[in-house]
Specification:
Shape: elongated
Low-confidence stretches: none
Strand content: 5-15%
Radius of gyration: 22 Å
Number of helices: 5
Helix content: 40-55%
Strand order of the largest sheet: 1-2-3
Mean pLDDT: 85
Distance between the termini: 24 Å
Order of helices and strands: HHHHHEEE
Largest sheet: 3 strands, antiparallel
């Protein structure tokens, strides 16, 4: 149920007789979270985010295993070409606001990195993607949602937005 300012004023006026401030009470209830302002994203942005994150996580998981066995072993050039392509796509997606490092874009094929170096950089990219996601989602009641611009033919809310459920942000500090 959506609250209007007039409803809140009415509740406050009625609750004043009881000594209750409804606005303060609402802020203290754990299942009611004030909606933060986020810049809506396009549906294709969410799709691209999910694709890149899954690819990054997959490569990260594989190389983390290799890195535990032999952290100083060099990554082969076959894998490195795919990693660099993924990093290039990630840099384009994250732009300067979310990129983990301004002076790093991809690995040099002439100076083959070690497994542990690649794992380190991929983990930074995964954190940057999570920061992007945390800045693009809101909590409504007890669930988390992407805030997406409704496309032509889609029915959105009064602001022309649709909401797509997602998981809570990692490392959420409440």
């Amino acid at each position: 149920m959506k609250r209007k300012n007039s409803d809140l004023k009415s509740w406050n006026q009625n609750s004043d007789n009881l000594g209750i401030n409804v606005e303060n009470l609402i802020e203290k209830l754990p299942f009611i979270t004030p909606i933060k302002k986020v810049k809506p994203v396009k549906h294709e942005t969410v799709d691209k985010y999910q694709k890149l994150c899954e690819q990054l996580q997959g490569i990260y998981d594989e190389l983390a295993i290799l890195s535990k066995k032999s952290p100083n072993e060099a990554v082969n050039t076959f894998k490195l070409k795919f990693i660099n392509k993924l990093l290039q796509d990630s840099n384009d997606f994250l732009n300067s606001k979310y990129r983990p490092f301004d002076d790093f874009s991809q690995f040099d094929l002439d100076e083959i990195p070690q497994n542990s170096d690649v794992v380190l950089m991929l983990s930074q990219y995964l954190h940057s993607f999570e920061k992007f996601r945390a800045d693009s989602i809101i909590r409504k009641h007890v669930r988390w949602y992407w805030v997406i611009e409704a496309e032509k033919g889609q029915k959105g809310d009064e602001q022309g937005l649709i909401y797509s459920e997602t998981t809570s942000p990692k490392r959420l500090r409440e």
